[in-house]
Amino acid sequence: MKRILISLAVLGLAVFGCGKKSSDQPAIARVNQAVLVQQDFNDILPEGMTNVTPAQKEEFVRRWVNTELFHQEAQKKGLDKDPKIAKQIRDLQKEILANQFIQKEIVEKLKVSDTEAREYFEAHQEEYQAEIKLSQILAATAEQAQMVKASLDNGEDFAKLAREKSLDPTTKDKGGDLGIYLRRGSGQIPIDFEEKVFSLKKGGISEPIKLSDGYHIMKVTDRRTSPQGVKFEDIREDLVYGLTMLRQKTRFDNISDSLRLASKVESHPELIK
Length: 273
Description:
Blueprint: H1 2-14, E1 29-31, E2 34-36, H2 38-44, H3 54-76, H4 83-107, H5 114-123, H6 125-128, E3 130-139, H7 142-153, H8 158-165, E4 177-183, H9 191-198, E5 209-211, E6 214-225, H10 232-261
Antiparallel strand pairs: 1-2, 3-4, 3-6, 5-6
């Protein structure tokens, strides 16, 4: 059921891309001069998806017809000439092109095989058989995180600094203690984050790690052998996915940095009111 619902959502979003064209293919649906053909449907199907139910096909056609009806009516009323709407259309075009570039240059070219995942697992075997307990200090900016790290390097107490400096309301009063043991491959944290913290010995402190909510400085407060042995087969699917995401993220960052260096870029988020 979940797979069907996801598929319908994908179809519903993608249907807006179909439009007027000339084709030798028979018309599946038609609204005035706009024609829906088989290729339109094929183009929006997720890769590898072949079993589409009659109900899904009917829903797709219904959505296409409704979209065309409202689209054509909007054009008659000149909504596409409205400056605000025209800008939204241009912005959407930019987003589509950028996403297609990412899809073709990164996603389609960088996928991790089972063999590569197994080799990675074997190379990190010791980490996969361990559990660690962590404390953290969360900072808002890279500069603030580096100041905290410098204080720690100079011998400041981690728990004391967490209480004074950390922005995480759930752990700061506990000296940054996360309160649980983490195991590699559990899916609780991203694989690149795992690499940085599981490589630390007991008492080790990480460099600032950037996540969506800020910069995390982590300390391993305890390390022990996991009571549950981890086998490759247990985590194969998640590991392949995690390594693929990591490989693609690295490539994305490299391309982004390269393009940024080759372009004139200014960024002033502090000016946003």
